[in-house]
Design brief:
By secondary structure, the chain is α+β, with helices and mostly antiparallel strands. Among the domains are: 274 residues, Alpha-Beta Barrel (TIM Barrel); 135 residues, Jelly Rolls (Sandwich). 18% of the residues lie in helices and 34% in strands. It contains 10 helices and 34 strands. Strands 1, 26, 27, 28, 29, 30, 31, 32, 33 and 34 form a 10-stranded mixed sheet that branches. It is globular. The protein starts with a helix and ends with a strand. Its EC number is 3.2.1.55. This is non-reducing end alpha-L-arabinofuranosidase. InterPro entries: Alpha-L-AF_C (IPR010720), ASD1_cat (IPR055235), GH (IPR017853), Glyco_hydro_b (IPR013780), Glycosyl_Hydrolase_51 (IPR051563).
């Protein structure tokens, strides 16, 4: 029955078209039709699927500050060598309201070891011969000057790394040490124990790999950031997503609580903790170790424009839909003004000074700001107007992003488009999580958009097709191919579509709430999906001007299951042609490149295809569906190629204009 269903799906999406014959295409090389923004292809980051804590943020200790609703979640009692004692959870709500909870270890044996062990985020991934940096904020509560033994323990219970921490006093202080793992293990744990008799209070128990992105202390997971860097993104949208809104307004994302010292950042429950009961994740919280400063810094590292999204005074309308009264919006609007100051302000300003104190005296050159995420209705329009009125007056240099709701073509969408157009918003954020068939059928979506209206930010999109139980199975070649076809229309209409990003960005294979996702990871490994490699071919093989590529005078938007776009970069001397053959037949194409440009005699070709439309990459076979590079000869100004079935081609041609 399942095979029959899949057969029916493919028959409607990629049916063979007998007798397609030869397709002659014309590429006009001399005359560009539109400019492509340098920030067109970007990435959307949200702390979903353990994307931040347990993912991009390299902290290995879960619930390091004991602020989860269950303070000992992730921890359990541990003892060695006849050690014994008691564990207590204490609060200092008056003295430290942001991070009041801490752990007391009361060790009651002169000789033994007694304390706690942390399980990490579905385990701790450690590698042989690599160093890990431990830190704790602690004090001696009673007894002699204690020693604390810190151990890495493998999945079989054996010690694979150890260090000892000393120097405790009766005052809270940060103490540090390091240890080297003797083994590679994806499911290690951390044991922290007091040696002998004594009482020690502990908070912010932390373990980071020394090998982080750019070797920044307590930084980001290097292999995950490398995957983002390889995309050469033009922008980084953060922090989401529905994470911006919160289940209710008390749990909305508040950027000011995510900057400054990490121990002073107020942890909250992650909205994806209980959003999907079939993927219930009770241990999902936001430590905000990855906060707005770190997001800005990451954008800078990636060479991407930062695009923060702020709450507009509305909680998620799929949840409580709480609203801030219009006459009480001032604090929310002030947050927007203060964020611009934090990003761009002089170091003599309040928030510019904080940025400098955190290590970045130079401004981050913020140019974009999103107001609200995925809201709809007149209540959103009213609140957007309040923000825009102030921001346009005080910061006319900032481009504002408004929303169009959660769907690409319903009543809410059309209402908001008209309202946002009247408001002269700079960019309208469109979202579409649709079937592969929708993506194949909408390559011409923007062909008839108003050229004088607001620009489009395709802020969240992904093809949702057939799936199997294995998490990565929804990221099929079929879904990636349909996105590649759709994206030819984004290039062709770059005068309307200025920015685009797939969503969500990444997911932990053991802790996901939503799929498909662009990048999958576990505690030690990372896998790019077929969708990732499609995005990479668009973002790395991109020109800065659109060229016309047509068949019989019309753009290819699915005729004979063919899709095409083209661009050029005169400065780098490159022409890029992207072709999608969405049929299950080979198709012969001849491309005549008209114009005065002189072309190299060879072109680089990147080809993506798969025998099975439902093929996907796994941790065991991470390169099952990836681009394959080759070269072809060019005869004069003609490219002659037979496109394989279900294939995506990128031709990179050197040219002198």
């Amino acid at each position: 029955m399942k095979k029959l269903l899949l057969s029916l799906i493919f028959s409607t999406i990629i049916a063979a078209t007998p007798g397609m014959g030869q397709s002659r295409l014309t590429l006009e090389v001399d005359h560009a039709t539109a400019a492509i923004k340098p920030y067109m292809w970007g990435i959307f980051f949200e702390d979903i699927n353990f994307g931040a804590d347990g993912g991009l943020y390299a902290e290995l200790v879960k619930n390091r500050s004991f602020e989860f609703y269950e303070p000992m979640m992730g921890w359990k009692e541990a003892s060695k060598e006849e050690g014994n004692g008691k564990i207590f959870i204490l609060k200092r709500e008056q003295k430290k309201p942001v991070n009041p909870t801490y752990l007391r270890i009361d060790s009651r044996n002169d000789q033994g070891l007694y304390g706690v062990v942390n399980e990490g985020f579905r385990g701790m991934g450690v590698r042989a011969n690599e160093r890990y940096n431990f830190s704790v904020i602690a004090r001696k509560a009673d007894g002699d000057t204690p020693e604390v033994v810190v151990e890495l323990v493998n999945s079989e219970g054996s010690v694979i790394g150890q260090t000892t921490i000393t120097g405790f006093t009766k005052e809270w202080q940060k103490l540090e040490g390091s240890l080297t793992s003797s083994q590679t293990d994806p499911k290690a744990s951390l044991r922290v124990m007091v040696k002998g008799k004594g009482i020690v209070d502990m908070d912010m128990i932390s373990l980071f790999p020394e090998n982080t992105w750019k070797n920044r202390k307590n930084g980001l997971r290097a292999d995950l950031v490398q995957m983002l860097y390889d995309l050469k993104p033009g922008f980084l949208r953060f922090p989401g997503g529905c994470i911006v809104e919160g289940h209710d307004l008390s749990l909305r994302y508040q950027w000011k609580k995510t900057v400054g010292p990490v121990e002073e950042r107020e942890m909250i429950i992650n909205r994806w903790n209980t959003e999907f009961m079939h993927r219930h994740t009770p241990d999902y919280f936001q430590s905000f170790g990855l906060g707005f400063y770190e997001y800005f810094l990451l954008a800078e590292d990636l060479g991407a424009e930062p695009l923060p999204i702020l709450n507009c005074g509305m909680a998620c309308q799929y949840n409580t839909g709480e609203l801030v009264p219009l006459d009480e919006l001032d604090p929310y609007i002030q947050d927007a003004l203060d964020l611009i100051e934090f990003a761009n302000g002089d170091t003599t300003t309040q928030w510019g000074k904080l940025r400098a104190q955190m290590g970045h005296p130079q401004p981050f050159n913020l140019k974009f700001l999103g107001i609200g995420n995925e809201q709809w209705g007149e209540q959103y329009v009213e609140r957007y107007q309040k923000f825009a009125e102030v921001l346009r007056q005080k910061h006319p240099e900032i481009m504002l992003v408004g929303g169009s709701g959660p769907k690409p073509e319903d009543e809410r969408f059309h209402y908001l488009w008209n309202e946002m157009k009247d408001e002269e918003v700079d960019l309208i954020d469109e979202h579409y999580y649709m079937s592969p068939d929708w993506f194949f059928s909408n390559a011409d979506r923007y062909d008839d958009y108003d050229r004088n209206g607001p620009k489009v930010f395709a802020g969240e999109y992904a093809a949702h097709g057939p799936e199997k139980e294995y998490p990565l199975s929804k990221n099929t070649w079929l879904s990636a191919l349909s996105e590649a076809a759709f994206m030819t229309g984004l290039v062709r209409n770059a005068d309307v579509v200025n920015m685009a990003s797939y969503a969500p960005l990444m997911a932990h294979v053991e802790a996901w709430q939503w799929r498909p996702d662009l990048i999958w990871f576990d505690n030690l490994n990372v896998v790019g999906t077929p969708n990732y490699y499609v995005q990479k071919l668009y973002s790395t093989c991109t020109g800065n001007e659109v060229l016309n590529i047509t068949k019989d005078g019309s753009p290819l938007t699915g005729q004979n299951k063919l899709y095409a776009s083209a661009s050029r970069d005169k400065n780098n001397g490159k022409v890029y042609i992207k072709l999608v053959n969405a049929s299950n037949n080979s198709q012969e194409v001849i491309i005549n490149m008209n114009g005065n440009a002189k072309f190299d005699k060879k072109a680089t070709v990147y080809l993506m295809t798969a025998d099975d439309p439902l093929a996907y990459n796994t941790f065991e076979t991470p390169k099952k569906v990836v681009p394959v590079q080759s070269t072809i000869k060019i005869k004069g100004k003609v490219i002659h190629e037979t496109l394989q079935p279900m294939s995506f081609y990128v031709f990179e041609i050197g040219a002198k204009f």
